[in-house]
Design a protein that fits this description.
CATH class of the largest domain: Mainly Beta
Number of helices: 1
Largest sheet: 12 strands, antiparallel
Helix content: 10-25%
CATH architecture of the largest domain: Roll
Number of domains: 2
Strand content: over 45%
Strand order of the largest sheet: 6-5-4-3-2-1-12-11-10-9-8-7
Order of helices and strands: HEEEEEEEEEEEE
Low-confidence stretches: 1-29
Shape: globular
Structural class: mainly beta
């Protein structure tokens, strides 16, 4: 009888410890929510893209160029650099006619650490997300760019961006598709009478990025609106989720 009781106690202890370990794992790992950027090989997301560029020269007329196309971001492979971190290669496919097949357009790569999601786009390194995502948390997402707010060069508009989680784990709908859990990162927002800078991204769990708005516009006509700026130079790009393949 004593041996039987000891056996039962041993099994119970093992089960309790296993349960405690599972609870501990859920407590320490689940809140990090890495699935906001799924990196499974073959995972892809298609976006509808609206692009507007503004060009104006004193003495001339306002030029506005609009275009619509689709982009598909696809995780295609893993590789290693000198750092002990797995890198994920991303193919970016493009098509201007939805009846035609996608054509390979660009490549980039990304990686995930315990506390960050980072990528390299056109040789520029961005710190896109920090983990765990918590509403109100902010960080310098452009800290690796050669951008200086005292040097008026190509990178000047990207200096000092203070990325901030403005919402985490909230439902949102994009392009008539409902997502139960999304987060939004306001990368920068600065607007006055003549300058407009907005960059914001939204992500959905198990999908990845589902929305991006990126605009940098300067206008001389202060009476015109930012929706329809006049005497302006710059661009506005909006990427909206269309579909995805897990």
């Amino acid at each position: 009888m004593t041996k039987k009781i000891l056996g039962i106690l041993t099994v119970a202890t093992v089960l309790i410890l296993a349960g405690c370990k599972q609870d501990m794992d859920n407590t320490t790992l689940n809140p990090y929510l890495y699935d906001y950027v799924p990196l499974d090989i073959g995972h892809s997301v298609i976006y509808d893209v609206d692009s507007i560029s503004y060009s104006f020269v004193n003495g001339g007329t306002q030029q506005v160029t609009t275009s619509y196309y689709q982009l598909m971001y696809q995780v295609y492979d893993t590789f290693y650099t000198s750092a002990p971190t797995t890198n994920y290669g991303i193919y970016i496919w493009k098509r201007t006619d939805t009846t035609q097949p996608f054509q390979l357009w660009q490549e980039q790569y990304c990686w995930q650490t315990r506390n960050t999601y980072e990528d390299v786009e056109n040789d520029l390194h961005f710190l896109k997300l920090v983990f765990p995502p918590i509403n109100g948390v902010n960080w310098q997402g452009n800290q690796y760019l050669p951008a200086n707010d005292t040097v008026m060069d190509t990178y000047f508009p990207y200096a000092g961006w203070n990325y901030t989680y403005t919402s985490v784990n909230v439902p949102q709908t994009f392009n008539n598709v409902h997502f139960d859990s999304t987060l939004t990162v306001m990368q920068d927002s600065n607007q006055n009478l003549i300058n407009d800078l907005v960059s914001v991204e939204s992500y959905a769990r198990h999908v990845g990025m589902i929305y991006k708005k990126w605009e940098i516009i300067n206008k001389q006509s202060i009476s015109s609106t930012w929706a329809n700026p006049d005497s302006a130079n710059g661009f506005r790009i909006i990427m909206t989720f269309h579909s995805y393949t897990p």
